[in-house]
Amino acid sequence: MFGWLDNLVRYIVENIFNISMDTRLGGSVHFFIYDTVKILILLSFMIFIISYVRSYFPAERTKKILERFSGITANIMASLLGIVTPFCSCSSVPLFIGFVEAEVSLGVTFSFLITSPIVNEAAFAILLASFGWKIATIYVITGVVVGVIGGIIIDKLHMEKYVEEYVYQMKVGDVDIVKMSQNERVNFAKDNVIEIVKKVWLFLLIGIGLGALIHGWAPQEMLAKYAGPNNPFAVLVAVILGVPLYSNALGTIPIAEALINKGVGIGTALAFMMAVTAMSMPEMILLRKVIKPKLIATFVTITGIGIVLVGYLFNWLL
């Protein structure tokens, strides 16, 4: 798909920068330029498409849709809506309160909260660009599965008593769903592309820069030995290391790409990425405003185990 870009960047590195592609520096510079352009192109395209779809699913409509379902169907719908619904750690508290007020079950709410930060259009675009349709599709499916199963387990544990009392007493009221014309939806998608790129470009460049350093300078033999698919503890360590960090998928996927190119297991690298995006400390701190520590610990444990299993699955399949 991007063979033309690879050839163009090679030409720039060798003939304009006068750096041989056979050197570590040449490989790193090529990685940085190629990945930056490739990711920005796919990122903008995917954000536009998903934002257009997202215009049909504001938070109020998402809440109303989930009210109609029950049982495992509700968990599946919550996870699927989590893919196309805007979510960040700053929105976790109002979304949680809105779902509780609408009497959406706790398990269904967590299916949404688990899937939404893991699976998003930006991460899908970069995975598609870096690893192809197969890995990108499995990534989406496994993210949804983790959300569905995690929500079902939380629902079966009946942990409603670990939600702060004031949440049940709040009444935010209904919000009118604004109808948009086709031109407004297109403009919404354009504005979303600009807004998201402005927010994430620094994370993106830092991640690609670190990926370029790893690509050119990290010792391949050592990484393959200690973090390769044959190390049974690599996935577990990657998830544990990812929890206290704060980044997003855009910052971690270029690093994952470079690590995989150096022999690190695909599942190990993606498990690290998913742990950072789904269980970051800022999100846990914000969720503490509405749920008690035991429920947070349960959420982190269930999600962490799910991500570890997904990591082993990727290493086994690929």
Automatic annotation (TrEMBL):
Domain of life: Bacteria
Cellular component per GO, a single term: plasma membrane
Primary localization class, coarse: membrane
Keyword NADP on entry: no
Keyword tags: Cell membrane, Membrane, Transmembrane, Transmembrane helix
Topology versus the membrane: Multi-pass membrane protein
Residues annotated as transmembrane: 31-53, 74-100, 136-154, 200-218, 230-247, 259-281, 293-314
Places the protein is found: Cell membrane
UniProt family annotation: Belongs to the UPF0718 family.
Protein name per its UniProtKB record: Permease
Organism: Haliovirga abyssi
Lineage: Bacteria, Fusobacteriati, Fusobacteriota, Fusobacteriia, Fusobacteriales
